[in-house]
Amino acid sequence: MLKKIPFWITYVFLYVPIVVVVAMSFNAGDSPYSWSGFSFSWYAELAKDEQIRIGLGNTLLVATGSTVIATVLGTLLAVGLARHTRSKILDAIATLPVILPDIVLAIGLLAFYSLIQLTLGLYSVLLAHAVFGTAAVAAVVRTRLNGTDPSLEEASRDLGANGFTTFLRITLPTLAPGIVAGALLAFTLSVDEFVIAFFTAGPQSPTLPIVIYSMVRFGVTPEINALATVLLAVTFTAIIAAARLTRLTERR
């Protein structure tokens, strides 16, 4: 029975709702369900909304900070696991934050913050996002490391360079495409993430997904559709850039 179902129906089911959201963001009327004409007015309203601007600023701050931390730690973690301490158990632990359901990781982080009596705010969200961001960066960089020749690093050390110099002159430039791809992935995950932010953010520091959630509880408006379209464009751009860099990583 399933073999008789055309494959394109799957794409219709997945993408038609997204297309409708994008189309209705250009609706001139205030109804999210009936078309009244083409207009950019809701994007102008979006730019005037102070609550959304605050949420966007918080999201960009958290995403940028967590991406920087995740990129540094994830790169070092990948190099350490691939070159110095090879262990399947440690590999599994390193990727665990990405595999775990968001709700489990969120509850665990909230319990940890409560244990150390950390007041919730933007910094608590930033650290929480850095946890799964580090795992994501490590996974991407590790893929790049698996395709590199370790003899280059050995040759550098044989020529008298110490470990730090070898890392800066040989390892880091070789890993650059993978590091950038991992950073873009971590940034995208942080911008879109809701559950962990909802559990670890303070009442005065909502991220953009939390602001959107508070708005859609009273119904979806064209302004929400416009905001979703903007986020969709940013996310697609980052994902495509990460995919291209990952392919470049695999070819070299």
UniProtKB/TrEMBL annotation:
GO terms for biological process: transmembrane transport. It holds the Pfam family BPD_transp_1. Its main location: membrane. InterPro entries: Bact_Polyamine_Transport (IPR051789), MetI-like (IPR000515), MetI-like_sf (IPR035906). The keyword Acetylation does not apply. It is found in: Cell membrane. The keyword tRNA processing does not apply. Keywords: Cell membrane, Membrane, Transmembrane, Transmembrane helix, Transport. GO terms for cellular component: plasma membrane. It is a multi-pass membrane protein. Residues 56-242 form the ABC transmembrane type-1 domain. The chain crosses the membrane at residues 7-26, 60-81, 93-116, 122-141, 175-199, 224-243. Belongs to the binding-protein-dependent transport system permease family. CysTW subfamily. This is Spermidine/putrescine transport system permease protein. It comes from Actinoplanes lutulentus.
